[in-house]
Each structure stands twice: as structure tokens, then as C-alpha cells.
Amino acid sequence: MRILVTGAAGFIGSTLSHRLLERGNDVLGYDNLNDYYDPTLKEARLARLAPHANFRFVRGALEDRPALERAFAEFRPQRVVNLAAQAGVRYSLTNPYAYVEANLVGFINVLEACRHGGVEHLVYASSSSVYGANRKLPFSVQDAVDHPVSLYAATKKANELMAHTYSHLYQLPTTGLRFFTVYGPWGRPDMALFLFTRKILAGEPIEVFNHGKHTRDFTYIDDIVEGVIRTLDRVPAGDPAFDPMHPNPGSSAAPYRVYNIGNNRPVELAHYIEVLEQKLGRRAEKILLPLQPGDVPDTFADVAELSRDTGYAPSTPVEVGIGRFVDWYRAYYAV
Ligand SMILES: NC(=O)c1ccc[n+]([C@@H]2O[C@H](COP(=O)([O-])OP(=O)(O)OC[C@H]3O[C@@H](n4cnc5c(N)ncnc54)[C@H](O)[C@@H]3O)[C@@H](O)[C@H]2O)c1
User: Fold this and answer.
1) Under a CB-based contact definition with an 8 Å cutoff, are residues 127 and 179 in contact?
2) Domain NAD-dependent epimerase/dehydratase: where (predicted)?
3) Are 29 and 56 in contact (CB under 8 A)?
4) 10 lines ligand 1 (CB under 6 A)
5) Enclosing domain of residue 130
6) Total domain count, the chain
7) Residue 63 lies inside a defined structural domain of this protein
8) Active-site option among 30, 124, 152, 166
């Protein structure tokens, strides 16, 4: 099986590629290694993949249509996982065009390449941020998601709409996965766990938004990757139960699905920090701040549909996952 993974130098993409290679798939990684965060970390992730004989890599941007088309024409992927995107909620308040380029222009290029390349299944990253101003918990794919509170979220919701159009018009099977705060080894330096760890070890204070009171459905990377692979292996068909008089937002008469992929066990930020302090053996000096514009107070994933359809069963509590992150961080940075 030939699988093209965009964002293969990223946190989720590199871990996913690793697992796909281990189970014997051919993987083409596609990534522009941009400098949104330290590119040497991206290179180090790629260096772990390079020894696999079945791994190839192309450095390119999604919005570079000729480069993307060339990669598809040469590799002829059977399945595609689109993880490359401009991520991050707060950055979208100051750099909106980065999101339009990578997440909208880039995504239409991926859809077109999949359509013309006869791809069997496109799995793509959406986000829990699409729930925006919703307050009904847990978040369900049955809920309307029409009130995004950041441009990042709006582009992820747009991806779901664009995917549906291609599933409907061209019978391209697509599955969107709404990821809920992913963490673990080889993680992202712009995310809380990484930022807190660096600052606590350097003896610097950490900024704790919403006074540490918000909850997040923190999901461990290995659980996420397991869920992505189970999803990738299950090509959606049109839902025979789909009723256009009462349209189910998570499915369609077209080969289209959207799922939440979270831990289903929300944890308060203050507790997450306490666990980190225990694992590091150090207390954090905290600067308590209000909720940031664009951020949502709580997230909690209803994963019943993904579990029903794929057997997804996340099993890693934050006490275990944070410990593994800290072990990785100390080894990688030799601190
Ligand atoms: N990590 C999370 O908690 C989380 C939560 C919700 C959604 N997501 C989504 O999951 C996906 C993967 O996230 P991640 O945490 O691994 O992020 P990441 O930033 O580590 O990985 C994304 C990779 O894509 C590459 N990339 C970015 N723009 C590109 C472009 N225009 N062309 C080619 N390559 C490009 C980057 O260089 C990076 O290596 C993203 O779509 C993100 O929005 C992640």
C-alpha cells in the first residue's frame, strides 16, 4: 500500500509515518519544513524515518501546485493523509494569510490531486476548534459547528465542507478527523506542554491562561496514531441511513465521514500542570492570566462514533503520557 502523508515532518505526521512504515506500507512524506517552529526538530523527526527503505520524502508546499502534482504523479498514492497545515489558534490572529495559503489553497490542491490521481481514501486533519462558541459538552459530530471563534477553526471547518463537495461530486472517499489537543514525545514547541517544560526547567515563570481553569481533552499521540490508522483502513461508503430530511452532520449519502478523535476524559489545565511538576520534580512559578482571544474554555470529545466504526479506544491517562513526554524531552535536549 502506497500512502502519501503530508506534514510528515510534523508532530503527528512523523509519528504516523513511523507506524505505517513499521507495518509495511510505502510512505511518501511531503512537507515544506517551514519555520513556524524550530525546523531542526522537524529535521530530527525526518532523520528517524530516513533509515526505512520504504520511506521517501519530498520537500514542498501544499500551495505549490506543480510540486504537489509531481509528487502524486510519481508516487501514485493509493491513500492520502493530509496533516500539513498552518496549525495554532493564537497565531491565526496575527497571521491570517498563512492559514488561507496552507489550509485553503493547499487543501484544494490536495483534493484536486486526489481526485485526478484516483485516490481510494483521503483522511485529513480537522480540529476540535470547529466547535467554537458551542458550550454543550461533550462535543458531538451531531452538533452544529457554525460559530468558529478563530480563523484557524474557520479554515478547518471549510476543509470539511470542501471535502464533502469532492466526496459528493467525484465520489472521492474522505474522512475528517477532529483532533483534540494532541501531546507526547516529539511534540510541538508552540503547545502548552512543551512551553511549560522548557520554562520550568529554565527556572522561568509560565503563563497560565484562564487561571488554569479550562479543561482540555488531552489525547496521547499513540492513541491518536492508532485512531488515524484505523480510520485510514476503513474507506467510507455513502451512508445508507442518511436522511436528507434530517441530515446527519457527521455522514452523508456521499462517501464522507467526520469523527471526533479525543481522549473522552477532559482534564483541568491546573491538574495537567501539577502532573508535569511531579514528573519534572520541580514547582512552576505561575503567572495567572485571562482566557486568550480565539481560545475556547473547555473541550471534551464524544468519540462514540469513531469507537463504533473503527474500535478506537484511547487508553493513555495524562499521568502516563506526560511522563513519556518528559523522558523524551530530557533525552532529546539533554537536560
Ligand atoms: N497537535 C494538535 O493538538 C492538533 C489539534 C487539532 C488539529 N491538529 C491538526 O493536525 C495536523 C497536524 O498537526 P501537528 O500537531 O502534527 O502540527 P505540526 O505543525 O507539527 O505539523 C504540520 C507539518 O506540516 C508542515 N506544513 C505546514 N504548512 C505546510 C504547507 N503549506 N505545505 C507543506 N507542509 C506544510 C509543517 O512544516 C509541519 O511539519 C494539522 O493539520 C493541525 O492543524 C493538530
Assistant:
1) yes
2) 3-240
3) yes
4) yes
5) 2-180+220-264+300-315
6) 1
7) yes
8) 152
Pick from 78, 76, 75: which is nearest to 56 by CA? 75
Q: Which residues pair with 286 in a beta bridge?
A: 206
Position of cell 523524551?
A: 328
In a domain, 272, yes or no: no
Evaluate whether residue 210 is within a structural domain. no
Neighbours of 323 (CB within 10 A): 15
Q: Please give the number of the atom of ligand 1 that sits closest to the Cα of 128.
A: 6
Burial class (CB within 10 angstroms; exposed 0-12, middle 13-18, buried 19+) of 80: buried
Low-confidence ranges of the chain (pLDDT < 50): none
- The CATH number of whichever domain residue 72 belongs to comes to 3.40.50.720
Q: Which three cell numbers stand for residue 17?
A: 509515518
- Candidates 176, 60, 180; CA nearest to 121 is 176
Helix (H) or strand (E) holding 42: helix 39-49
pTM of this prediction?
0.98
pLDDT in tens, 180-205: 999 999 999 999 999 999 999 999 99
